[in-house]
């Protein structure tokens, strides 16, 4: 495409429906059904999936069977499966299950971190330090992704300035010295606008760009900004985007937030810039349809309501 915007050639999509999406469903889903959904996602060409979280089953009962789901895909060596962990216990369980990519979550805002993981930001960072020390000392070939929640807006504290993100990211990078990091700026509530996304990425890249750091954006679509925010993130340095098939989701710890940006809507937009994701859109829609039929799920997707013959 003859475009003055110079979009990148490729973007990594991380499909987060099995984690951010499934956790929003109150009724327990059968493990076999979750496995079928993950398989349908794999069949569409997705190569990165956040397959679930190793969290307290009292906090999120839906994640109690995560070990069985990871085990079901243990022979899929070409896939990049990650799992969210809130603390050392979660990291230990994830590593024991064979997970090779930990997603450590900490919120930029104190009140959201308290509500989400019941500890202060600094004590979450202490947990990150123990995990980082372990990854370094055991020479695990394990990737580390940092999910910085509430980077743009907190359901309790309101707008978050880039300087607040900078403070937490600075501490985290210090803790993770010597480890390659992917850092996701997360719009947990879906209230960010594209201009705020552009500003955060620009400012934070000025302070933290490094060959050992990759940038990601994790967006929710509460205010309908999801695709626009993701595209602005890409134009300002993100190389990875999180999204959820059928837009399934909603954070139980961020009242009012709806699901992640629908992966199929995002892929359609990226295709417009000839940006490769490796995903076959018609096959992805088959997976998104399966995920949308899960009982109790809240979904939102534009592409799924367009007649299929018009999608290609
Ligand atoms: N996996 C499984 N169990 C865990 C655990 C983990 N990662 N971390 C702690 N636990 C268990 C403890 O062993 C303890 O079990 P017990 O009651 O049988 O002794 C119990 O949970 C309480 O442990 P404690 O350390 O006091 O945790 P807490 O009650 O303060 O809860 C978290 C803290 C982080 C474990 C919990 O809030 C949580 O799992 N949150 C997940 C939030 C989330 O996933 N949010 C969405 C993603 S952004
Ligand atoms: Zn989220």
Number of separate domains:
1
Strand content: 15-25%
The CATH superfamily turns out to be Aldolase class I
**Helix-strand string:** EHHEHEHEHHEEEHEHEHEHH
Architecture, according to CATH?
Answer: Alpha-Beta Barrel
Rg measurement, Å: 18 Å
> Which small-molecule species are bound to the chains here?
coenzyme A, zinc ion
Termini separation comes to 17 Å
List the helices and strands and how they pair.
Blueprint: E1 12-15, H1 17-21, H2 31-43, E2 48-53, H3 66-72, E3 80-85, H4 88-97, E4 101-107, H5 110-117, H6 121-137, E5 143-149, E6 153-154, E7 158-159, H7 162-175, E8 181-187, H8 194-208, E9 213-219, H9 226-235, E10 240-243, H10 263-272, H11 281-292
Parallel strand pairs: 1-2, 1-10, 2-3, 3-4, 4-5, 5-8, 8-9, 9-10
Antiparallel strand pairs: 6-7
This protein binds coenzyme A and zinc ion.
Task: Summarize this structure as a short list of keywords or feature phrases.
TIM Barrel, two-stranded antiparallel sheet, single chain, binds zinc ion, alpha/beta, eight-stranded parallel β-barrel, 312 residues
């Amino acid at each position: 495409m003859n475009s003055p915007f110079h979009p990148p050639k490729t973007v990594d999509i991380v499909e987060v429906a099995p984690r951010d999406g499934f956790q929003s469903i109150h009724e327990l889903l059968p493990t076999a059904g979750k496995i079928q959904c993950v398989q349908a996602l794999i069949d569409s060409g997705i190569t990165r999936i956040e397959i679930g979280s190793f969290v307290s089953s009292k906090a999120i009962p839906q994640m109690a069977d995560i070990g069985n789901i990871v085990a079901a895909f243990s022979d899929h060596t070409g896939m990049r499966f990650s799992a969210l962990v809130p603390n050392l216990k979660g990291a230990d369980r994830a590593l024991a299950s064979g997970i090779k990519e930990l997603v450590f979550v900490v919120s930029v805002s104190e009140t959201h971190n308290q509500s989400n993981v019941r500890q202060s930001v600094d004590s979450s960072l202490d947990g990150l330090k123990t995990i980082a020390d372990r990854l370094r000392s055991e020479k695990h070939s394990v990737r580390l992704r940092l999910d910085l929640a509430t980077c743009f807006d907190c359901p309790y504290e309101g707008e978050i300035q880039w300087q607040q993100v900078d403070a937490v990211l600075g501490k985290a990078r210090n803790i993770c010295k010597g480890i390659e990091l992917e850092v996701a700026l997360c719009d947990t509530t879906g209230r960010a606008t594209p201009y705020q996304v552009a500003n955060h990425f620009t400012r934070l890249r000025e302070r933290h760009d490094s060959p050992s750091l990759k940038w990601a954006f994790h967006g929710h679509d509460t205010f309908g900004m999801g695709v626009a925010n993701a595209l602005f993130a890409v134009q300002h340095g993100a190389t990875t985007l999180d999204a959820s098939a059928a837009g399934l989701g909603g954070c139980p710890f961020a009242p009012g937030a709806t699901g992640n940006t629908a992966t199929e809507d995002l892929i359609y937009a990226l295709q417009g810039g000839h940006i490769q994701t490796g995903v076959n859109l018609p096959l992805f829609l088959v997976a998104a349809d399966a995920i949308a039929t899960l009982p109790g799920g809240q979904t939102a997707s534009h592409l799924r309501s367009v007649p299929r013959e018009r999608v290609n």
